[in-house]
Write the structure tokens for this entry.
Amino acid sequence: MPLLEITTSRKVTATVSLEEPTANLVNQYAAFTRVAADDVVNKALEYVFTKDKDFQRFIGAPNDAKPIHRCVSSVMATIDQKGKPGRKPTTSVPAPTATPIAIAAVK
């Protein structure tokens, strides 16, 4: 039985680099649970964030105690004024070039 229960929801695209063994395990877990690799990574991160008590205290601290530095670049899908799908960056941090984990791992 899988440890993660995975359902789909609204997404943003974030580019991250994984070590090859980790990317392979993500793909294997995705095959095991019959969901997309993106969903595996998302649920695994949600799980860690909710279980880490020090992190929970950190995000509950006043905003002036938190550094404002975005490490993950993300892009949200938007609809332009003509009703056509478009893409709008949510941060000014350029995304690193990486191979999507669902396709292949970087050697």
Notes: Residues 37-51 form the longest helix (15 residues).
